[in-house]
Amino acid sequence: MNCVSSYASELMKSHLSSSLPFLRLFVFFANKMIYEVASKATSLHIIDFGILHGIQWPTLIRDLSQRHGGPPKLRITGIELPQPGFRPSQTVVDTGCRLARYCKRFNVPFEYNAITAKNWEALKMDGFKLARGEVVAVNCNDRFKDLLDLTTSGEDSPRDDVLNLIRELNPHIFVHTTISVCHNSPFFLNRFQSALFYYSGIFDMFDAIFPRHDCLRLHSEQAIMGPVIKNIVACEGKERFERP
C-alpha cells in the first residue's frame, strides 16, 4: 500500500465493493442476519472487528430507521488496527463521526465506541462497555486474516484468543465472512498454487467487468492485488499478513 495514499486505496476498495457481486453479497448477508436478530430489540450493539471506514453500516441504519415500531438505539464498537502516521486512531474516529451524521439524518439514536489496537487478542471485556438488555452482534468481514494462527507460529494462537473473547462476549449473533482459499499454508508450493488459481480467477473476473485500461482497475491490480500476492508467496511467519 506504500505506492498510494490511504485515501486512494480506500477509494479503490469502495469501487471494487460496489462493482463485484460477491463483495456486496457479504454485506447483504451480514446486515440481513443482524437485522432479523434485532427485529424486536430496543437496543442493538454491533461489535465490528475491522470497521475501517464503516461502509457496511449505512444500509443497515436505513433499514433500522424504517422498522415497524421505530428504530432501536444503535451502538457500534468499531475495532481497527492503528493506521500509519501521527494519528493512528483518526480513521476509526472519523468513521464514528460519519456514522453519527448518517444516523442523525435517519433519526436513529446512536452511540459509538472506537477501539484502536495492534493486538486484538489483548482486548478485554471491559473495553466493549456491554449494557444490560441489549442485543449484541459481532461482525467480522474477512479480517481474521490479520491474525496469526497455529499453522504460522509455535506460540499461542492470537486467532483462537480472539475467538475465545467473542465466546466470552456471548453475542446473540456472530457473522464471520471469509474467503475459502489456502493462503495460510506453511509450505511455499501450496501457497503458490492457491494464489495462482485464486487470483487468476479474480483477474478473469476483472476482464469481464472492467475495461482493460480502466484507471481504477489498473491501480487496484498494482496497489492492492500486487502487494497481497507478493506477501502470500514471498513472506513467512509473522511477516505474512494475508492469512484467510
Automatic annotation (TrEMBL):
Q: Which keywords does the record carry?
A: Transcription, Transcription regulation
Instruction: Please give the residue ranges the record annotates as the region Leucine repeat II (LRII).
Output: 94-126
The ranges of region (SAW) come to 234-244
User: Which N-terminal residues, if any, form the signal peptide?
Assistant: none
> Which Pfam families does the UniProt entry name for this protein?
GRAS
Q: Where is this motif: VHIID?
A: 44-48
UniProt keyword Transcription regulation present: yes
Report the family membership. Belongs to the GRAS family.
Report the protein name in the record. Uncharacterized protein
- Organism, scientific name: Cuscuta epithymum
